[in-house]
Amino acid sequence: MAAAAAAAAVGGPQPPQPELPAPGLSLDKAATAAHLKAALSRPDNRAGAEELQALLERVLSAERPLTAAADGEEAAAAGGGGGPGAAEEEALEWCKCLLAGGGGYDEFCAAVRAYDPAALCGLVWTANFVAYRCRTCGISPCMSLCAECFHQGDHTGHDFNMFRSQAGGACDCGDSNVMRESGFCKRHQIKSSSNIPCVPKDLLMMSEFVLPRFIFCLIQYLREGYNEPAADVPSEKDLNKVLQLLEPQISFLEDLTKMGGAMRSVLTQVLTNQQNYKDLTSGLGENACAKKSHEKYLIALKSSGLTYPEDKLVYGVQEPSAGTSTLAVQGFAGAAGTFGQLDSSDEEDQDGSQGLGKRKRVKLSGSTKDQSIMDVLKHKSFLEELLFWTIKYEFPQKMVTFLLNMLPDQEYKVAFTKTFVQHYAFIMKTLKKSHESDTMSNRIVHISVQLFSNEELARQVTEECQLLDIMVTVLLYMMESCLIKSELQDEENSLHVVVNCGEALLKNNTYWPLVSDFINILSHQSVAKRFLEDHGLLVTWMNFVSFFQGMNLNKRELNEHVEFESQTYYAAFAAELEACAQPMWGLLSHCKVRETQEYTRNVVRYCLEALQDWFDAINFVDEPAPNQVTFHLPLHRYYAMFLSKAVKCQELDLDSVLPDQEMLMKLMIHPLQIQASLAEIHSNMWVRNGLQIKGQAMTYVQSHFCNSMIDPDIYLLQVCASRLDPDYFISSVFERFKVVDLLTMASQHQNTVLDAEHERSMLEGALTFLVILLSLRLHLGMSDDEILRAEMVAQLCMNDRTHSSLLDLIPENPNPKSGIIPGSYSFESVLSAVADFKAPVFEPGGSMQQGMYTPKAEVWDQEFDPVMVILRTVYRRDVQSAMDRYTAFLKQSGKFPGNPWPPYKKRTPLHPSYKGLMRLLHCKTLHIVLFTLLYKILMDHQNLSEHVLCMVLYLIELGLENSAEEESDEEASVCGPERCHDSWFPGSNLVSNMRHFINYVRVRVPETAPEVKRDSLASTSSDSLSSLQNSGTAQVFSLVAERRKKFQEIINRSSSEANQVVRPKTSSKWSAPGSAPQLTTAILEIKESILSLLIKLHHKLSGKQNSYYPPWLDDIEILIQPEIPKYNHGDGITAVERILLKAALQSRMNKRIIEEICRKVTPPVPPKKITAAEKKTLDKEERRQKARERQQKLLAEFASRQKSFMETAMDVDSPENDIPMEITTAEPQVSEAVYDCVICGQSGPSSEDRPTGLVVLLQASSVLGQCRDNIEPKKLPITEEEQIYPWDTCAAVHDVRLSLLQRYFKDSSCLLAVSIGWEGGVYVQTCGHTLHIDCHKSYMESLRNDQVLQGFSVDKGEFTCPLCRQFANSVLPCYPGSNVESNLWQRPSNKSIQDLIKEVEELQGRPGAFPSETNLSKEMESVMKDIKNTTQKKYRDYSKTPGSPDNDFLFMYSVARTNLELELIHRGGNLCSGGASTAGKRSCLNQLFHVLALHMRLYSIDSEYNPWRKLTQLVEEVNSQQGNEEQQPEVPILYHDVTSLLLIQILMMPQPLRKDHFTCIVKVLFTLLYTQALVALSVKCNEEDRSAWKHTGALKKNTCDAEKSYEVLLSFVISELSKGKLYHEEGTQECAMVSPIAWSPESMEKYLQDFCLPFLRITSLLQHHLFGEDLPSCQEEEEFSVLSSCLGLLPTFYQTEHPFISASCLDWPVPAFDIISQWCFEINSFTERHAEQGKALLIQESRWKLPHLLQLPENYNTIFQYYHRKTCSVCTKVPKDPAVCLVCGTFVCLKGLCCKQQSYCECVLHSQNCGAGTGIFLLINASVIIIIRGHRFCLWGSVYLDAHGEEDRDLRRGKPLYICKERYKVLEQQWISHTFDHINKRWGPHYNGL
Hints:
Elements: H1 3-8, H2 29-41, H3 46-59, H4 63-70, H5 72-79, H6 83-100, H7 105-113, E1 124-125, E2 130-134, E3 145-146, H8 147-152, E4 160-164, E5 169-170, H9 201-225, H10 236-257, H11 261-272, H12 274-281, H13 288-303, E6 319-320, H14 327-336, H15 345-348, E7 359-360, H16 370-375, H17 382-392, H18 397-405, H19 410-422, H20 424-433, H21 437-452, H22 455-465, H23 467-480, E8 483-485, E9 497-499, H24 504-507, H25 512-522, H26 525-533, H27 535-546, E10 554-555, H28 569-588, H29 597-617, E11 628-629, H30 634-649, H31 661-682, H32 691-701, H33 710-723, H34 726-736, H35 756-775, H36 784-798, H37 803-809, H38 825-834, E12 835-838, E13 852-855, H39 857-863, H40 866-872, H41 876-893, H42 924-938, H43 946-961, H44 971-974, H45 990-993, E14 998-1006, H46 1010-1020, H47 1022-1030, E15 1035-1036, H48 1041-1059, E16 1079-1088, H49 1090-1102, H50 1132-1146, H51 1148-1159, H52 1172-1209, E17 1235-1236, E18 1243-1244, E19 1252-1261, H53 1290-1304, H54 1307-1313, E20 1321-1332, H55 1333-1345, E21 1359-1360, E22 1367-1368, E23 1370-1373, H56 1379-1386, H57 1393-1405, ...
Parallel strand pairs: 14-15
Antiparallel strand pairs: 1-5, 2-3, 2-4, 6-7, 8-9, 10-11, 12-13, 14-16, 17-18, 19-20, 19-23, 21-22, 24-25, 24-26, 26-27, 27-28, 28-31, 29-30
Helix pairs in contact: 2-3, 2-6, 3-9, 4-5, 4-6, 6-7, 6-9, 6-10, 9-10, 9-11, 9-17, 10-18, 18-21, 20-21, 20-23, 21-25, 23-25, 23-27, 25-28, 27-29, 28-30, 29-30, 30-33, 31-33, 31-35, 35-43, 36-38, 36-40, 42-43, 42-49, 43-50, 49-50, 50-51, 57-65, 58-61, 59-61, 59-64, 59-69, 64-65, 65-67, ...
């Protein structure tokens, strides 16, 4: 291909297509392509090449589409008016044809795929894709697999999890750099490349010609489309428009990459070939279009702040070989107007073949200016410019995917990585400007994580492109944009700058892509070593870290509360963790062995230099500025962590890396300041700074931060303490904590820097800090496993924990790439060693528990460490919680009954390097403090607490445990200058100082202090004076003044010797303790030693004189084996005894002195004089205490009352006598039912004008409709084949039946023949509490005015029961009536059944006029309205004539039916258990019946149509025949539903009902039911059986009790029905109808009984509620006989010996055969015309199984994999939040707008259609169940738990989940019992948006 041709090919404005008279163009595309391919295959292919060029030029003219989009005129010229879309498609069609070379494109794709040698998966995904990560198989922690590769590999027993990709990623299957080969899936197990055939040259030849032009065309489009925005804001719209236009082109490229390795390697050649790029894009030649495009490119470069290199400095990219010096340079010059001389050799030396510019690698020295990194960009290949535009357009997803899809090609991977690094600075600049920085960050990381996770690649780029320099420089530049002056220490003159945490860059974490890349490359050892060896880099990095040193400074507000609480602190903590700590942990992970000592020395050296610079910059001398604190000292922490590592792993000598004393003093100041500030914050001294300061204090110790924050700080303080003078250190601590003035023997003092109310907690803080400092061994010699164990024990002691929260709470090495995985083996083994697993349990209240780990007993016994707990608690209450649990353990195990003190725990031995730390315990200053505090506690001075004493004893014990081996009393007095404390104690060893007696102390006290007066008296008496002189002067104790003076001298001396410059001494606030004028000096007589104080303390604590008796006097053994378990746990007394024993063990002198002290009978401690003020506070305390006790008592009483109430209220089987809540039980001695109103508390009967009502909840329910007739439970569909059809549900069957009846019979009669309410029936339940209806109204008013957000809607009448807070929405009036009356009604009467039948008929005939307008009747009406409004209209209106009264009639008795049926289900579907079940206790059916009956009586049924007549009288046939031609006939009585008839009959009677009437109705209906059973049986069996029965029965017809023999009756039924056509259709339907069983008398009897049982059950329940009779319990097989005798159907004289026969219950009101034939006649007349339907209506399925939710699969993954990709049936997209209904299995979109109908989202709609307002949905992506109830919803929890018994909401952890059957049962139970509202507490409105 001649270069000239190439240049010309950049075509000018071409004429529109048809006018081109080029040869062969009239042919179609395929032919042209074939012709060209042939031409190019010849050896001399120049002509073919030119022809192809011309064609491509015309087809791919960049002018056409975008200019068309831009302005119309050119479009008309260029595009022939075809519009942009058409031209685009045309171009793509051409490309496809040309690539395929005349063949079909699809065949071409298949052919190329056959040559795919790639053994990598490389599937690229975008955000939200579900992928897997297996830690067992991964080498890099970023490893991820697509679901397909994961499931096809074998990962059983591995540590894997599923996750939702945040930024997108790619599948690593097949890449052995990132994962172990054992984890590859079947498809990607290494293929050897030998069996892939070589690619034939001609297959891809066309692609090599066409693709460069295609990609160039794409780049031209990108250049064209980019308009530099006016402001610095790229107009999002324009960019997106361009991208949309280019979508097909990029998709085409993406499809090419998916063709496999062969096509990828062609693309790689095209993208990286520098010659192609130069020829096509240089912008030379006469082509205007190309020129314009090139100019746009240069403008874009310039506007990006990038220069175009004019010299030959090429940064980080390979220098091209000599022959190909870049045209672009001159091109730029040309554009600038100084057209350079062209080097002619450039153009000619390329021949037409695809010559790849060979590259020469040039290493650049590290001296390159930063500028070059930041500002120079030079593009030499398509790939480079493509990436440039990708960045410019802010990483469009399509482009990213295309660039990543190419990665399986190794050559491309290297080239692309280098290009990416070359553009790194540009990426950072674009990112900073971007508005969508979040999306952009994700896309950047999506790319970089693929490149930098590969160690080999990272190493190569580090060596060749200076990756580390680039990254560090870019980070530095990025942060430099948001620096501000630091105000720490010296506000005016500080030279230090810090990042401003309020800037968007930090607030939005914009820096994280760059930081995460940096952390990623530092995880590779080879890269990290380069970093640690490069001094220049380390200096730069420390410079970067110092930007964070001292950021987010807090200043304590002293006057008023801050106006605005800034929330920047979280940004600061995140920044330090991500930008400083994580890279530090990354580096530390490579400093594990001795050989790496040099690295540590480097880091420590530059770290100290940076720290020195920092101290100078902030002008720090020796006093921190008051009332300031910053939690951010990353430089200190780098230093500390590298020191720790050096000693722990590298065996470095600590002193060799420590600075001089002065530097150590400075180093300790700021970390110590933080510790003191923590105490101040917890003492509420910073309360005016708002809540955020507490937030900072918590974050500082929180588990994700603590080992990068507080742990290094404390370690650094430990190092300083071990090397500095201990007296100096101790006094500094008390000074920082501001409690110096408190440490005086005097009973009163003045504190110049601290309010009295804060003193106690600050003193506690100081002592606690000392205890932590001296006993924490995290970095002082504990092994990793010991640390893990200690952390775990501390967390478990605070609370039982779930597995995942433990993982989260235990600070692992925070660098995620360090290879220490939280779920590692050591974690599991330590966990099983220290904790027991408590499986999840279920409480009857329904609250779900998770599987928890709880500490083993021996852990409490030996390992509970209060110090570790205090260090790790974020909330102070957790410390208390740990102590409470410890106390409970001791009580339970009988080790200690009282309130124990925190136990003293033995420590692991110190590492020898830190031995100096223990000198703190043996310094006089500390001993004086301890002595003073013991004395003060003994004398009951104010502001001391048990906690103080506890810590004091702890410190003494630590000192005894860590005392020097031998007691030398001389050592202290010899060394060093005279110190002010020498007069107190002779030496510095605690053991000997303990026995040293101190006689007199001189103190400074306020003149008002009691000591002053006492002393003036004492000094006059001669003896005290003489004793004074004897003892020398009294000890003076001023903790700070002299200490600091002396130390200042030491420093000044050492520094002046060095520099001859004395540092200015800052005036110490403490230097003049006597400055306050009213202080005066007093001398106290003490005469105590620490030992004597301890013994007196023992007496004081035990409250007995001489309570201490040295144990060794009785049992000398004690001194030999000191470890006595009895001293391990206990309170203060135990602690004192333990300490005295240890003291005695350490020295014989101590032992002797203890014995001496004990011998002197100690005089009682003088009662201290109490001043009036103190008395007041004491009284106050006492009163408070008493009030507290009273409150406790009340609470306990209240709790027990509540408990007993809960037992009766919740379905907990409790003894019946708790609270008499059965309203319906009959109590003969009371004349009228009495109700308590829970609002006004009055009791009384319910009356007409002041009715009482039951608190009820009305809810629509479709639970009944979900009963199915087969036992096999329905499963949730998890494949396309499994679907659930609802035709076998109870609701569907009843619907079909009703519509069938309505087709053939009179509407009003149909509506009496069935019940509705299987779906959308109204269920009424009560908590059993009653209230006056007027009280309720005022209660509702008050709720309405209460502005607090309730979980319910008062406007809809919802409220909570004022007593038990159960949810309710209506009040059911109680019918006034007396119980005695009901007793009378129940007396059996001796009337004959005929008389009773007449009475019933008469009573029904009386119209029930509505009672006069009383309050009661109004309430009855309103509650009826409520009941109707509870369910939707469609569940009420079944009549063909809307609004017909028959509807209401049907609805009302169906409400009764629904409630009875549901109660039956709650009892398990039968009445075998008998008794007033738990549900019966709170039933409101009696009241409900009154309300319904009252309303039913308003509709009198015309006596003509009253079914009662048909049941009890024989009608002349003439009557029934006439007139049925004109109108539809009535429903035959045998088609009636008997239970419905029962309810109609009873509700039509005046209430209350008499028992004998009730029995009469039941008897009559039973005859009908029995007949129906016989008819159904006759239809079920076949012709032969029928004729046999007909025959046998006919023989017995004339026996005496023929009417009570089922054989006779059956034969009569058969003979009657044979007259009609009912049996005639047999032939066709034989197989369908006939049940295969041979009928025996037993099976027939069973069939008849089963047919009748449902009716008997409902009737017995009804009788139980109406008349308060108990239900008998029985075995299942005798249920029929027991219920029938209970209902009075069985004659009392019935003998029980015979096998029971159901027919014996019959009691026919009229001759049986007559009435049966009358009933059969109706059937026959119907089956004349409709035999089919006639038969269907006769067979009623009466045996419904209990309702169940769908059965779920064992493993959640099966549900997830099927549903999370399933498309929505409405919009065929995959929904964002898919859900599935657990009742019927319907797939729905949660919140999906696509499925919205009239503002109702799909879940809400479905809940109305499927559950009449109740929906139970499983959210697929969250594994959680959500309940919708009416207008509210709640998250119920999950029924899938992981192996540790935990939920995984939102699948965040992605561990395998398994069904928890108990939970699912609980859910089902709540659904069936309608108790969602009561049990789940967190409800919220859903506004139809779910």
